[in-house]
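Reviewer comment 2.1 asked that we show a complete input and output for one of the modelled complexes. We chose the 4'-deoxy-4'-aminopyridoxal-5'-phosphate case, as it is the one discussed in the main text.
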Amino acid sequence: MNTTEQMIRKHNFNSGPSVLPKEVFEEASASILNFNNTGLSILEIGHRTPLFENVLEEAVSLVKELMHLDSDKEVLFLHGGATTQFFQVPMNLLDEQAKAAYLDCGTWGTKAIKEAKLFGNVEMVASSKDKNYTYIPKGYTIPEDAVYFHYTSNNTIEGTQMHAIPETKVPLVADMSSDILSYNMDFNRFALIYAGAQKNIGAAGVNLVILEKDMLGKVNRKLPGMMDYRQHIEHHSMLNTPPVFAIYVCLLTLRWLKKRGGISAIEKVNDRKAKLLYDTLDSLPVFKPTVAREDRSKMNVVFIMQNPELEKPFLDLCKQEGMVGVKGHRSVGGLRVSLYNALEMESVEALVSLMKHFAQKHG
Ligand code: PMP
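Response of the prediction step:
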């Protein structure tokens, strides 16, 4: 058995870095040894060569195609993880005297708010902290004088997801790290979208940022070059050496998504996976989903055991059956199953059958 076969025997429910398509692993491995029959590894090609320029260009164009982006949208691949965007966004968009509106609906949104406060005024329009972020706040008002409204589209840790884009004239900024490319929406409604790549886009080490150029250059502060979106746009994400390999893995994953029929096709599969898992959890009293039903995430399914003492035996059984990543985030505990694009239905079916077996034994 070769190493790829050994690897795919595991069902990987990790929250990110997470499962990627098998063919991406195979192609990426082959390219480490010999990239496009060049006799060079992808790890040793120069970034300012046509070899890499083609990789970056195709990745950008696939993002535009898959997300049906308007021609005024700029697509960047930047360093630093989504956490960098928590401060790069306000640094570029929020003047000291100006105001931005934020929705506080999970751990990552809270971090984004903390960083934005370093640069200007922040109005928190609503929060679900009162119930440990187990629901998405509704019925809030977004102040019309805010320069932008920021929210997290999917709360990776708590397992909630926004199922509709808020209606507002205020420019929308969204952290889509954990649900980008998983279902169709009108991505053109956003002034700025950012997402760490390590879930649905590709390998860790790079961020996808999609933005409108028009909104830049309006703040008074001076920006370091690496923090200035305008410079990244001007230099086509090559202001300095980009994370070549991470971007290459993004390209392979984007190609795979296109081959699978694009976002609409993967959305159908994602819906089926989430339905099967939630239906199972709802039908087995031994498990208890923790999130408001209407706000359940289709990417990160969070639940606890009715009897907390059964958590360890359940996790032990998962481990024994080759299922990894089922333990909840250290800050909330419990259990979490991530169902990103590359997780195949058969992994969910295997988990569901294990859950039924466990419930029969302990129910
Ligand atoms: N936002 C969300 C929604 C996330 O899930 C994560 C990480 N899992 C982050 C931000 C932070 O990303 P990074 O570690 O790439 O900085």
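The first helix runs from residue 3 to 8. We note this here for comparison with the apo prediction described in Section 3.2.
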